Amino acid sequence: MEKIKRRKSFRRKRSPWKIILLILGCAVLVVGGFFAASMIDNYINYKNSQPSDASSSSPSSQPSSDPASQPGGDVSSQASNPGHTTLKGTRAVTVSAQSLSSRVTELLALAKDGKINAVVVDIKTEDGTLQYATNLEAATRAGAAKADAPDLSTALKQLKDGGVKTIARMSCFKDPKAAMKLSGAAVMYRPNPSLIWLDSTKNGKAWLNPYADAAKTYLIDIAAEAADMGFAQILLANVQFPDNNSSASYYGAAASSVSQSQALTEFVTQMSDAMRAKDVEVRLQSGALAAAGGTNTIYGGVNPVALGGEGLVVDLRVSALGKNLAIGEDTIADPAADPVTTVETVAAGMKSAGVQPVCILDADSTNLSGQISALSAAGFDDFVLYRESGSYTAGELTTKD
Hints:
The protein is of the alpha/beta class. It is 35% helix and 15% strand. The protein contains 12 helices and 13 strands. Helix 3 (97-112) packs parallel to helix 5 and helix 10 packs parallel to helix 11 (368-377). The radius of gyration is 35 Å and the shape is globular.
C-alpha cells in the first residue's frame, strides 16, 4: 500500500506587541471620533443660541447703566418717577460733617429720586477748625483738630457707590487758628514784622499769608487728606486777601515782586497739581459781586474766575449779600426782599463777565423755585442749596428742567 505523505500546516505566530498596538489604534480612532462629534455638536448648539445682530444691540441685552451708579454723573429719575427728566449739571445740597453719616440714607433717597447728584461737606470752617478726624500733625499744633470729629470714610464710600459726588469745602487763608500757631504762615505786622497782624474785626483775627509756603503747604495737606478720605472734589473758599486789609499788614519780601493776584493764582495752581495726581477736581468759591464784575480787591484786583481751578462756585445766597447791592448801573436796596430780581441781576452780570458758575442758593429764602428758574433762564443749570440744618425734602428740590 502506498504511503501518503502528509504535510504539516502551521501558522506563524503573531507578535503580541502588534496585537496590543492594533487594539490601541482602534481605541484612539473610536475615542477621537467621539470627541470630534461632540465638538461639532457643541459648536452647532452655540451658534444657534447666539442672538442676531439686531437683538444684541437692543437695550434689553445691554448691561444696566443706571446713572446713580456713575459717581458725579447726572442722575435720572427711576421707574417710580417716570415724569422726571435727566438732571442737568450739578444739583447739590450742603451737609455738615457732623451729620453726614446720619443723613446718608436720606441723601441716597434724594439721589435715587432724581433730585440731587452731589453733596457739599464743610471740612474746614472759617475759624480754622477741621470738621473731620485728621491725622495731620500740623493741624494738632494749630489747635485745628477736634476730639469728637467724625471719620467720614464710610459715608463717603456709600455716597460714591450710590452715584452721589462728594465735595469738600475748606476755608483757606481765612484761618485764625493756623495763623496764630504755625511758624511762618501768618500775615505779619509791618511796623514790627515779628508780630502777627490782626484784622479790624471784633477782637481782631489773624490770617494765613497767601505768599507763605508754610500756609500753602498746610492747606494742600488738608486737601490731600480729604482726597484720600474719598472726596471727589475740593472746593476752596476764601482764596483771598483780608477783606479789611490795611497798610499795616506785611506779606514778606516776595510781595514786592509778585502781585497779589499772581500769589493767589500760584496757590491754586499748586493745589490743582497736587489734586490732579489724586484724580480730584479743584474749584474756587467766590462772592457774587466780584464774579459779576464788581469789587474784587480781595482777589488781587481780578475777577476770581481768573485765579484758576476747574470752575467757579458763587455764593448767591441773598441773605448774605447785605444791603444796597451795586452791580453795574443797578442797585438793589434789599437783595433778600426781592430774591428773584437779585438773582436775575447778578446772573446777568456774571454772564456779561464771561463767568459760568455753580451758584449757592439759600434753601430757606423766599421763592426758591423762582430763583432757580431765574438761573436757568440765564443759562446756569448748576446750583448748591444751603441750609444750616442740612435737611432737605424732595418737594423743595423739584425743579422744571
